[in-house]
Amino acid sequence: MTPPPSGPTLLGVDVMWVATLLSGVAAFAVLFAIYTATTVRDPMVKRVKALNDRREQLKAGITASTSKRRAKLVQKSETTDKIRAFLSSLKVLQDEQVKTAQIKLLQAGIRRKEWAVAVIFGRLVLPILFGGIMGFLVYGTDTFADWTAFKRYGLVAGSLILGYKGPDLYLKNRITKRSDAIRKGLPDALDLLVICAEAGLTVDAAFARVSKELGKAYPELGEEFSLTAIELGFLTDRRQAFENLAMRIDLDAIRGVVTTMIQTEKYGTPLASALRVLSAEFRNERMMRAEEKAARLPAIMTVPLILFILPVLFIVILGPAACSINDALIAH
Q1: How far apart (Å, rounded) are the C-alpha atoms in residues 151 and 157?
Q2: Is a pLDDT exceeding 60 seen at residue 64?
Q3: Cα 212–216–221 angle (5° rounding)?
Q4: Over the stretch 207-259, which tens digit does the pLDDT of each residue have?
């Protein structure tokens, strides 16, 4: 029997097989794009719910008695209580550590403070879990038998360190992304605050109006301003509301805005002029960051240019000539 005729090949690879594979990948990409387009969720629904919960908590804290206030504000969680009891029995749960974890959760946009116990529990359990699994794979099986002793030890030690630092790295990544998103919208928010202040609105009304206007473009900043407006309306000490804003956002620019707001509340200085100066400074800072990125672009593009663009350019230019020379040599 004669073998079936093979399709055209390019560099020893069947062209039809590659085309079939690429067609399957393209079909999967189209289906995934359709799925993502049809299952879009409105992020404002969850944020509005969180703000309403905060408003109800503040109402309960003002109107209820001491015992009822505590029962209203403290949300019971059996899992959190069990984790807290377990950590307390091991003498590894410290109040300062819990407060630090709660602040990081707030800066990451996570409003549930009881998850701070889960973060501390993850630092305790994940090293044992990852390190135990990796230690069993390295020393209990032949999976890494061809590795040297130093490499196997480094793999197990790296798993232990990754398990311990995993929750902190996750929170730090979320804090960084959220802070960058807030930094982008801060100059526009200050401009809107200046307009609201010059129009005669109060500070809490100005924050509420700015949060409503920026809710779609900068949802993180809009959420924080809306929460600040709620706290300004319910807390007895208005300075505490501004300090809570600075605590929830890990940005020096926000701390400067908070300091300005506190000074205007205390000394009665003009709010619009101070915010206008801050807005101009933040815009200049944003422009300098953009110019810095533009200046670094040629150096960053050098490696991709050499590795990916120039080889393709040489193939496109020299490929037809090489094919012509090959055909001429074969003909002779």
Answers
A1: 10
A2: no
A3: 70
A4: 889 988 888 888 888 888 888 888 888 888 888 888 988 899 888 888 888 88
The whole-number pLDDT of residue 49 equals 67
SS3 string of the chain? CCCCCCCCEECCEEHHHHHHHHHHHHHHHHHHHHHHHHCCCCHHHHHHHHHHHHHHHHHHHHHCCHHHHHHHHCCCCHHHHHHHHHHHHCCCCCHHHHHHHHHHHHHCCCCCCCHHHHHHHHHHHHHHHHHHHHHHHHHHCCCCCCCCHHHHHHHHHHHHHHHHHHHHHHHHHHHHHHHHHHHHHHHHHHHHHHHHHHCCCCHHHHHHHHHHHCCCCCHHHHHHHHHHHHHHHHCCCHHHHHHHHHHHCCCHHHHHHHHHHHHHHHHCCCHHHHHHHHHHHHHHHHHHHHHHHHHHHHHHHHHHHHHHHHHHHHHHHHHHHHHHHHHHHHHC
**b/e string for 21-31 if b means 16 or more Cβ within 10 A?**
eeeeeeeeeee
**Bridge partners of residue 13, in order along the sequence:** 10
Is 209 in contact with 225 (CB distance < 8 Å)?
no
Taking phi first (over 0 means left), then psi (-120 to 50 degrees means alpha), and beta for anything else, what does residue 15 get?
alpha
pLDDT, mean of residues 164-190: 89
Each residue's pLDDT tens digit, 143-169: 787 888 888 888 889 989 988 888 889
Mean pLDDT over 1-21 rounds to: 64
d(CA 140, CA 84): 34
